[in-house]
Design goal:
By secondary structure, this protein is α+β, with helices and mostly antiparallel strands. It has helices at about 5-15, 20-25, 35-45; strands spanning about 15, 45-50, 60-65, 70-75, 80-90. It is about 25% helix and about 30% strand.
Length: about 100
Amino acid sequence: MSILNEIKLSASRRILYTLHAVDEMNAPNEMISTEEVREAVFEGEIIEEYPEDRRGHSCLLFKITGRGRAVHVVCAPKEEYLAIITAYIPSLDKWCEGFKTRRAL
């Protein structure tokens, strides 16, 4: 099974948010809704994979949400749930136009 299918299957069971994710989503300049996270999870695309992550195989998802803004979601599929590690609005100082490629440091 592909990692994207694992993500969707885990999310269909349950989505759990880390404290870090909730803090980032609720930042005054972000205010990312759980619906936007769900859009990224179920309709977004993987732009980076982290197979060796200490939290388990995780991915960075990208989606232009129904609100018309780019959202990045880092998540890790587990047997009983999808862990949302963080979610944020990408900025052009760290990401190239289109928000799918990191800028060189």
